[in-house]
Amino acid sequence: MAEHSLWAFARALRQAVEDRETDHIAALLDDEVDWAIFGPIDMFPFLGARRGKEAVIDVLLQIADNFRINKFDREVTVLGDDTASTLVKCSLTANDNEKSISLRLANFARFSKGRLAKLRVVMDTFDLVEQTLGHPINLPSISR
Amino acid sequence: MAEHSLWAFARALRQAVEDRETDHIAALLDDEVDWAIFGPIDMFPFLGARRGKEAVIDVLLQIADNFRINKFDREVTVLGDDTASTLVKCSLTANDNEKSISLRLANFARFSKGRLAKLRVVMDTFDLVEQTLGHPINLPSISR
Predict the structure, then answer these.
(1) Do B125 and A120 touch (CB under 8 A)?
(2) Which pLDDT tens digits describe chain A residue by residue (144 residues)?
(3) Is the pTM of this model over 0.90?
C-alpha cells in the first residue's frame, strides 16, 4: 500500500518552516491550492486565505520568519482516501521576543494526485492572542 | 456496510441541543467519555474539559440554554474506522440578545462500540469572542 499523501506533505511542511527549504513543498502543492488558516489577520498577517502555490510558499516563509517550532505532537490523525485531518499540538518560540507559545492546530487537507489541493486550519485563536500579548484579555461571562 | 457511528451521534447531538431531547445522546455516550471544547471558559463556561456522560449532557443543555442553531453545514468529513473528523460551519442565535453568530467547529471524535469515547473541538475563538461582544478587540500586529 502506498504511503498516504499526508506524510510526505507533513515532512515537506516542516522543512519549509524549520529550514526555509521550499523545494520539496513546492513539488507537493497544487498550482491552484486553496488555503485558509482562520484567525485574526490584523495581528498575524500570515493567517487568512491564499490561492496558489507561490502565495502559500510566501506564507510558510513568513511563518518561518516569526516562529521556531520546538515540539510537534500529532494527537489525532484521521485518514480518508484523498483526505486527511490531524489535531496537532505545537510548541513554538516567537523570534521577536523569545516568548513560548503552545497551540493546537486542527488541519483538514485534501490531496489531488499526491499534491495538496485544499487546506483548512482552525485553532483556539483567543488563547493564541493572549499568549502573544502576554496577558489575559478581560471578558464578561455571557452564560445563562 | 453498517452506518458509521458518526451519523447517529450527529443526529442525537442536534436533538439534544435543538430540542433538549437527551435520551438518544445518552445512549451514544460512553460512560467515561473524555470531552474537551477548547476556548475561553471565563466567557463561555460550557467550554472546556468534561469527563463522563452526565457532565457532557449537562454541557449540551447549557449550550441549548444559550444558543439556537439556525444552520449547520458540514464542509469537510473524514472518516476512519472508529474515528471521524468534521469541519462544520454553524449559524447560531444567542438567546440572551438575539445576536447572530457564525462559526466553524473542527471536531475529532473517537467511538468505542458505537458510543462516543473521546471528543476534541477546536474553533476560531477570537472571532467568536468578537462576535459575542459585538465589537472588534484592538490588536497590535506582531509580524516581521
Answers:
(1) no
(2) 689 999 999 999 999 999 999 999 999 999 999 999 999 999 999 999 999 999 999 999 999 999 999 999 999 999 999 999 999 999 999 998 899 999 999 999 999 999 999 999 999 999 999 999 999 998 887 766
(3) yes
ipTM: 0.95
Instruction: Say how far apart CA A19 and CA B119 lie, in whole Å.
Output: 34
C-alpha cell at A28: 507537493
- Using CB atoms, which residue from A84, A126, A142 is nearest to B39? A126
Q: A80 CA to chain B: closest CA distance, Å? A: 6
- The rounded distance, in Å, linking the Cα atoms of B135 and A124 is 19
Q: Which of residues 92-121 of B touch A (CB under 8 A)?
A: 94-96, 104-106, 108, 110, 120
Among B76, B72, B107, B106, which Cα is nearest to B89's? B72
B83 and chain A: CB distance < 8 Å anywhere? Answer: yes
